[in-house]
Amino acid sequence: MKIIGKHILVLISFLFLVLINNSFAEKITDFEIKGNKRVNVETIKIFSEINLGDDLESNDLNDILKRLYKTNFFQNVEVKIENSTLIIKVEENPIVQNLIIKGIKNKDTLKKVKELISIKEKNPYIEDQAEAEVRRIKNFIQEGGYYFSDIEILKKENDNNTIDLVFNIDLGEKAYINKIIFTGDKKFKRRKLINVITSEEDKFWKFISSKRLLNKQRLELDKRLLTNFYKNKGYFGVQVLDNTVQYDTEKNFNIIFNIESGKKFFFSNFELILPEDFDRNNFIDIEKKLKKFSGERYSLKIVEKMLDNIEKIASRKQYEFVNARIDEKIVDGDKIDVKISILTDENNFYVKNINIFGNNITIEDVIRNELIIDEGDPLNKILFNKSINAVKGMNIFDNVSSEIIDTDNPNEKSININVEEKPTGQISLGAGVGTSGTSTSFGVQENNFLGKAIKLNSNLTLSEESIKGLFSYTKPNYGNSDKDLTLSLQAIETDRLTDYGYKSNDTGFSIGTNFEYLEDLYFAPSVLVNFESLTTSSAASSLLKKQEGSYFDTEVSYSFFYDQRDQTYQPTDGYSTYFFQKLPVNIDENQTVVNGLEYNTYYEYLDNQIFSLSLFAKAANSIGDDDVRISDRLYLPAGKLRGFEAGKIGPIDGGDFVGGNYLSSLNAQANLPIFPALETFDFNIFYDAANVWGVDYSSSINESNKIRSSTGLGVDWFTPIGPLSFSFSQPLTKKSTDKTESFRFNLGTTF
């Protein structure tokens, strides 16, 4: 009886709920629209998505409100049902009749501000949207250095529910960075930290650089760069405290970064946690790599690399819905246990749609091409995060934010991506002076041409012996191949008549690409078509004079670069290997094959004191009867052999250094832990050994096969006008024809 009673109670409850639900539903027999002036009745009915005869419940009224507000035509909406009549009362947003921007005289800046404003004339005015416009414009203006700019929105109401919208912009004075200061337990010298951040101190010769202007977004970037720098050096608990901006009555700004680095940490144990139904064999490679890092210095880069490996596994179909969580725990004072948990989402969702907002310049497909996850795919959290990071890595947006929102389908989610665009053009001017001569360069670069993320780069470089002009075009992710396509056009005039006996003029173009072929292994193939005009000096030998003339060359080149360094700039650990080969296609004109190999390794033998070793070799040989052209003969780079004049070792023909068919070098260098109080100085000792030899065009010329070597002291000084490096060298072994130098310096700066 008790059981029967319970069933009866459940049945009564169910019927009661059904009756209640039906009591709230009402069939619509008529519409009544109130308050509309511009938007006609039929349009509002369409927006509501309700038809006569529909049964409406209370939830349906909320949906109608959402649909009407979503149109942006209304600032207030009321919906109710009376006597089967759907009553919709609206208050329309005013229409922007005229959009006026005051306070900006520069035409280019004014054009950019207009592009940033999403509110357009003849469109509804929305209060929240206008406030977002102010923030967007202010961020852009502050990037130009107008730190204390102010923006006021004025609305002039007209008679026909329209307004004139005025953005009244007070730019104020530009704010320049007078000095950048690093304080606290920073461990590293100022010379190294100043090269980590992007902001620069204002100097009179840096009249082109925008990095000398005070910029909130750039300061936040600097803070992240410093944090990542310290974490990659093992300082797991580093705190880069809020940067402080100080300024005086003359508006000289000082930026202060307060750094508490803490102590250095090392990886201890790694643990990989997998769900029970996962095949552990698919994760063996990751476990092996994790064990290899045990005992190594903590590095954020290693953690990120492990996540990248997990992402590759996550892209497999059987792991569509996996996620990963990393837990780091300090043990034994300076050790860190790392637990990587592979998780499966309790609820499996699919991506219904991806909405992109804020891209006023950048074409939407350009952003979508960076996304690993797509509409219709499983919502994989790892791939989602990697997609957002890929958009950030395009370096054409100030800010990228995202959110995952519900849809009307309980098994689907929508992704909203909001971007804030930034200026992507850049002008650069540089100069250098040193023992081997002076140089000047000028360049213009654009990273988002036509809103397609196309990179354009033009550069002109002048030195004492050459003039070089370059224009390049790079299309990222060409044809959705995940590979960049680069086209370049260059012209070079090299005048080496005085010291090397020849002068050449080269004009050509190339097409190539560069991509990660395997993990940390990069492959860069290219094709070069070049026209060269070659002349020799009057004192040149008859054999060299035979090479005068014009040549049309077609060459194929490729390189492999394997990078295991902890960082690309000033590495402190790891190694890299680079192999290069250039092959002629039209062997009737050109028969020279060039091979090159370079190996670099780095080791931290004391805290922040680095030992580096470099091996370098190159060969130029003819595969036919012709000799290697003099312009293709090899000269040792100046930095590979200190203590000797650049290019002044090796075979000599008629008093000219004509280079060799082969060259090799060994360079060993170690930082010296001396004078720590000198914040802008680094000291090192070095040993260089090298050789340039081989003369294929003549058996009578001494091929100059002898090891040259030197040792000495090097100093790197970060001066107020740029980095200055100089060395004091003592040659140890040499040939009598070599030209030595005991002192060398180089100074470079950008404007």
Determine Rg (CA atoms, Å): 34 Å
Average pLDDT, to the nearest integer?
A: 86
Binned, the helix content reads 10-25%
Cross-sheet strand order for the largest sheet? 18-19-20-21-22-23-24-25-26-27-28-31-32-33-34-35
Low-confidence runs of at least 5 consecutive residues: 1-7, 9-23
Q: Give the overall form.
A: elongated
Task: Give the beta-strand count.
Answer: 35
Blueprint of the fold:
Layout: H1 2-24, E1 26-27, E2 30-34, H2 41-48, E3 55-56, H3 58-70, E4 74-82, E5 85-92, E6 95-102, H4 107-116, H5 127-143, E7 150-157, E8 162-170, E9 177-185, H6 190-193, H7 216-232, E10 239-247, E11 253-260, E12 266-273, H8 284-293, H9 300-314, E13 322-331, E14 335-344, E15 350-357, H10 364-368, H11 381-392, E16 397-406, E17 412-421, E18 425-434, E19 437-449, E20 454-463, E21 466-475, E22 484-496, H12 497-500, E23 502-518, E24 521-536, H13 542-545, E25 549-563, E26 574-584, E27 592-606, E28 609-622, E29 652-653, E30 656-657, E31 662-671, E32 681-693, E33 708-719, E34 722-733, E35 743-750
Parallel strand pairs: 2-5, 6-8, 9-11, 12-14, 15-17
Antiparallel strand pairs: 1-3, 4-5, 7-8, 10-11, 13-14, 16-17, 18-19, 18-35, 19-20, 20-21, 21-22, 22-23, 23-24, 24-25, 25-26, 26-27, 27-28, 28-31, 29-30, 31-32, 32-33, 33-34, 34-35
